[in-house]
Amino acid sequence: MKLVISSPTVLFFHSQQRDRGPAEEKLRGIYRFARACNWNVMTLEAPRSSIEVREQIESWQPLGCIVDMNESSKYFTASSLGSTPTVFLDFDNRQSHGRTFRVNHNPNAIGTLAAKHLTSLGLQHFAFVGYSHEWSWSDARKRSFRAHLGKKLGSFSSFAFPAGTAVSASIRREFAKWLSLLPHPCGILLADDGLAGEVYPACAKLKLHIPNDIAILGVDDNERFCSNFHPPLSSILLDFSQAGWMAAELLHRAIRNHQLSPFVQTYEPLGIAPRGSTAGKVTKDNPIAEKAKKLVSELSTSGANVATIARHFSCSRRLLELRFR
Q1: Per-residue burial over 187-221, b = 16 or more CB atoms within 10 Å of its CB, e = otherwise
Q2: Cα of 208 vs its chain's centroid, Å
Q3: pTM above 0.85, yes or no
């Protein structure tokens, strides 16, 4: 039985392994574009087989699909999707072989920001905590981070947790030993915020002080998650909303032109959300905040709100609040 929907439908398959915050931001960007196209966006959980993908396609008869990165990406094949245009968000390049439309983050920009922030603390020793080679994006962030440390690099070390599986007690013992051998003070970049759940307890057991002994910087800036640690985790803020918009815009192009050859677009980080794990150091250059202060003063008598001010800068409310804070 086929479902009948008044508006054309686009399916958004999201990963159960992705943090809720980034997924919501991506979906917000997709919704913004979808409203202009009169799309009905249906959010579905990651499928468990190619057969399930094919069944969803046959049931919904969508205009197209957007797939967020997860281990089940392998189920989105030519046979399961048929001729349905599909865009992949943060999709492992090794799985696609250049045959898919993709919107990926820029790992080089992440490495640049991380190196600049951690070297600004006066550190000379650095490390990276990521995932095993199954997740190539983690390796890309590590390579970029190390490359951009430049002449300020005194020493560099890295540790890889298994990708997509539970961490065993033996792996945690290996990690604790690795962490205990790092020179102090040391700046550590995490492949993503989630790894803080391993690093913080290990530091506590080894009586390593954060940030005096170990300064920690994450990636993704899931604010609720980062604020749950003591001290709160500094993190690189990715523009997930823009990623969602770009994916929807790319899908729109693929729907209108079936002869369009697959290609990759990249989205950039917005900056760093500094918190206690890097001593709360704030970058001096903050033009958005300075201009916002001036605009608030100018509009103080007109009752302007945050949304009004954000429109002046063509940025999200979240970014404006972060910079202003």
Answers
A1: bbbbbbbbbbebbbebbeeeebebbeebbbbbbbb
A2: 28
A3: no
